[in-house]
Amino acid sequence: MEPFELGTWLGRVQAFGLVANQTLAAQAQCLRTIRETEAYKSVCATWEEFCLQYVGLPRRRVDELIEKLEEFGETYFRLSEIVRISPETYRQIAQKVVDGSIEIGGELVPIVPENAPRIRSAVARMRSELKQARHEADIHSTPSISHLMARVDSIYEEMTRQAGRPLITDQQKAQLRGLTAYTTERMARVSKLVDE
Predict the structure, then answer these.
(1) What is the mean pLDDT of the chain?
(2) Would you kindly state where each structural domain of the chain is located, as residue ranges?
(3) How far is CA 137 from the centre of its chain?
(4) pTM above the 0.90 mark?
């Protein structure tokens, strides 16, 4: 890429930066073009140096912007102009985002500033529902005390069988002693946590 073209792309990046989030997607597109064409090499030796000197952001932050654009497209940036939304949350609600709109109560609502209050409220509700669903999943995936006791009993029985074998070698005995000491130490830690 010629230096003149790089200057044009840099000008776009800086202009978009002045308008903040409203053109963050366009800014990310310009930065991606500069990175992919390696146009930055006409003014800096490395991409990292270019990001700091010409964009004013660390390379990691610039790469994150480009990654968000590549993974989510422009709609993510439009939504983030209206409501703060992490990539993790966006991934979880992405199925409700269709062609620049977000599904709210069965209706596709365009992601535009005029709909900001409604979108913010809906995203807050979706976050709450996701949090509740994660909490319920955690409860159901956490083993009960009786289940844990059955597992401990099973391990105890297997260790007892190993120790009582008639042809157990000295090395196996030493390994079982080590395992017993290890288990005792771990159980003491659990006991201490319970007592705190």
Answers:
(1) 83
(2) 1-72, 83-142, 145-195
(3) 18
(4) no
